[in-house]
Design brief:
The chain is mostly helical. The chain has 5 helices and no strands. The chain has a domain of 55 residues. α1 runs antiparallel to α2 and α2 crosses α3.
Length: 114
């Protein structure tokens, strides 16, 4: 592909595993962010407050915003983003937790080298 045929769009995949050391602090931070969001309709605010209070993973999903991650990067504009969070069992010594494992599987499915 030459420069004219190359897409301007880039998919950036990021996977994070976070250790929550203080669930209460995470929940409080999410509730503070919700309270500061003046554009959030009351019904959505109530639903979000319930979600972040009941589930720390939901609180983290509310606090970690892909736009915040790239908003200061010069020369790029976020076009689309999706993210989720879930509680997991994590063993950093397990071979199941090797970095780029999903990418290798994707490459193999697409006929690439893993």
């Amino acid at each position: 592909m030459n420069a004219e045929e190359t897409s301007r769009f880039v998919r950036l995949r990021v996977e994070l595993v976070l250790e929550v050391q203080d669930e209460g602090e995470v929940t409080k931070a999410a509730l503070r962010r919700l309270a500061a969001d003046s554009e959030l309709p009351a019904t959505e605010r109530t639903q979000a407050e319930t979600a972040v209070t009941e589930d720390t993973a939901e609180a983290l999903a509310y606090l970690v915003d892909p736009f915040d991650l790239v908003s200061e990067v010069p020369g790029v504009e976020l076009q689309q983003a999706s993210w989720s969070s879930e509680r997991i069992e994590y063993d950093p010594d397990s071979p199941d937790w090797e970095l780029d494992q999903d990418d290798e599987e994707d490459d193999e499915e697409e006929g690439g080298i893993g």
